[in-house]
Amino acid sequence: MSTSRSLSAEWPISPAATLGSSVRTKGIEREARARLPWAVRKYLKAETGRLLLRMPEEEAEAFQLASEKISKTVETIEALPVLPREVEDILALSSRERHKWLKDGRLQSIGTRTLKMRGRSKAVTFHVFDPKHIEDVLDRDLPNIWREQDAEEAARNRRRGANKAARTRADKLSQRRGKTGTDGTKLDGWDAFEDEGLLR
C-alpha cells in the first residue's frame, strides 16, 4: 500500500521577531497565512522557532507559490506591529496596566488597526506598537519600575486624601465649637451677631 508523499519547507523565526512570546508566534502565523490563498492557509503552521509549510506532492505548483510568499513575509516579520494581546504576553501586563500606560504615554502607540472580528457585528479598533519600543521596555524591565512608581503615587494620593478629610473634619468641628457653648447649646444672640457681619 503506497502512501501519499508531501512537500515541506521551513523558515526560521528569530527571537527578535517573537520577543519570547507564544502569542506573538501565533500572530506571526496568522499574518503569514493571511498573505496566502485561502486553500493553502491550513498547510502553514508556526512552531517554536520556525514556520512550517507541508503540502501534498500533487500541489507542487501551489506549494512553490506559497513558499515564495512566505519567504517574503519572513523578511519583514521582525517589523510587524505588536498587537495588544501580544504586548500583554511579552511584558506580562494586565489589560488595565496596558490601558493606563498607553494613556499616560509610557507605552507608545504607532497607530491603530481596525478589524472585523468573526461573530461580531461591529469592527474593532485598537492600538498597535513598534516591536523595537516593546523590546526596549522589556530589556529595561520598565513594567516593574512603572508599577513601583504607580504604587508610590497611589500611596501619596491616599495620604493627601486622608489629610484633606482630616482638615475638613477639623474645620467643621471648629465651626460647630465657635457657634455653640461648651455644653453644646447654641449661644444666645449668636444669629444676630452673625447677621451683623462682625466676624467677616
Order of helices and strands, N to C? EHHEEHHHEEHHH
Biggest β-sheet strands, sense, barrel:
3 strands, antiparallel
> How many beta strands in the DSSP annotation?
5
With strands numbered from the N-terminus, the spatial order across the biggest sheet is: 1-3-2
Question: Overall 3D geometry?
Answer: elongated
**Mean pLDDT value:** 88
User: What is the CATH class name of the domain at 1-78?
Assistant: Alpha Beta
Fold-level CATH name of the domain at 1-78: Gyrase A, domain 2
Report the span from N to C terminus. Answer: 108 Å
Write a structural description:
The protein is α+β, with helices and mostly antiparallel strands. The chain has a domain at 1-78: Gyrase A, domain 2 (2-Layer Sandwich). Helices cover 52% and strands 16% of the residues. The chain is built from eight helices and five strands. The protein has helices at residues 15-18, 22-34, 60-76, 84-91, 95-103, 131-139, 142-179, 190-195; strands at residues 6-12, 44-47, 50-56, 109-116, 123-129. The strands form two sheets. Strands 1-3-2 form a three-stranded antiparallel sheet. Helix 2 (22-34) runs antiparallel to helix 4 (84-91). The protein is elongated and about 100 Å long. The mean pLDDT is 88.
